[in-house]
Amino acid sequence: MSSARGLSPRRGRGPDRRGWLRGAPPPLWARVLPTALLVGVCAAELISSEPLDIGFLLGAIPPLAVLAHGPVATAALGALSVVVLTVPFFRLNDPGSTDVLTVCFVALLSVLLSFVRSRRDAQLVFERAVAEAAQRAVVPPLPERVGPVRCAGLYRAAQSGTLVGGDFFDVRAGPYGIRAVMGDVQGHGLSAVATVASLLGAFREAVLDQPDPEAVAARLDRRLAVDSAAEPHAELFATAVLLDFSADGDVVRIVACGQSGPLLLRDGRAVELDVEPGTPLGLGLVEAALPRVVPVRLRAGDRLFLASDGVTEARDSDGAFYPLTERLPGLSDADPAALAERVWTDLVRHCPDVRDDVTMLVLAPRPHGAS
């Protein structure tokens, strides 16, 4: 699945960034080290003109094998260590029976530990696969096109090992046009997944029932208010931007709830639309006032770019914010997915250690009559 059209693995920059101690496959050096040590001991003994007292190094080979190998490979390396220790050809300095028994015991214990580790790793892999399936069910990948609107979303969760955090987006077709949403709920990581699932469920229902984008926002606000009332001191809230495209793609109506509106890419420039952030969702939107709806007429070639604060508030080592508006025109591409990936690459270059959820949504409507 293309990472630019939905969820994607954590950080997506080269090797698995979970780290070896967080579930990623062991690095090459960990797999090679036991064999290299065994070969090194043998080579040193054969090259030396005098017997060397380095047999103790062989006792380290089985425990090292546990780090990266299964029980069969660990047993094989342990057996080879005992053979090298006892065969006179390698001229080790007369190991006693205690040394041999010690290496045998360490090898047997290492095989047991390797068996336990392998079973645990297999269980963790299974549980991770189940968790990924559940998270993808909450925020499924975006289709490449919804009606006249081409779509691409990119998501990188701040919490290592997760695919869903506090940010969300979706694009849906309904009887009143094409609706899109991008938002950020209170909190990060798995603690925010339940709120994200609740909001997206309310959004998908509202797309079918509500004729206006402000009514969709009110439905999301009510959903959060109800969920918050069920949990004492929950104080759930979220920021979001809703976009309502006409059926022919000629006009988009924008509603902002505590979040800035999208950037409009037009004629090689990134234009900040005059969209006033309203009250965040979950804080009594209906009681305060419905948010202002901003209509924007679209032309052929226009693209709308939405980004979370993980993009706009990313800072480099000098504390400078990422200049999204200035960089965006130079990164634009005809393919919405390519634009999101280019911005991500440029963002990582500006701020290598991104600590917040990063979400981007690119929408490329094709107005009626456009070639």
Q: Would you kindly provide a written description of the structure presented here, covering whatever features stand out?
A:
It is a single chain. The protein has two domains: 114 residues, no CATH class; 227 residues, 4-Layer Sandwich (Phosphatase 2c, domain 1), CATH 3.60.40.10. The chain has ten helices and twelve strands. A hairpin with a 2-residue loop joins strand 4 and strand 5. Helices cover 41% and strands 19% of the residues. The strands form two sheets. Strands 1, 2, 3, 8, 9, 11 and 12 form a seven-stranded mixed β-sheet that branches. It has a five-stranded antiparallel β-sheet with strand order 4-5-6-7-10, covered by helices on one side. Helix 1 packs antiparallel against helix 2, helix 1 packs parallel to helix 3 and helix 3 runs antiparallel to helix 4. The N terminus is likely disordered. With 371 residues, it is of the alpha+beta class. The longest helix has 42 residues.
List keywords for this structure.
single chain; 371 residues; alpha+beta; Phosphatase 2c, domain 1; 2 domains; 5-stranded antiparallel β-sheet; 12 strands; disordered N terminus
Topology:
Elements: E1 5-6, H1 28-47, H2 61-68, H3 71-86, H4 97-138, E2 145-146, E3 149-156, E4 167-174, E5 177-185, H5 193-209, H6 213-230, E6 238-245, E7 251-257, E8 263-266, E9 269-272, H7 285-288, E10 293-297, E11 303-307, H8 309-312, H9 324-331, H10 336-350, E12 358-365
Parallel strand pairs: 1-3
Antiparallel strand pairs: 2-3, 3-12, 4-5, 5-6, 6-7, 7-10, 8-9, 8-11, 11-12
Helix pairs in contact: 1-2, 1-3, 2-3, 2-4, 3-4, 5-6
Protein name: Membrane protein
Domain PPM-type phosphatase: 149-365
Pfam families: SpoIIE
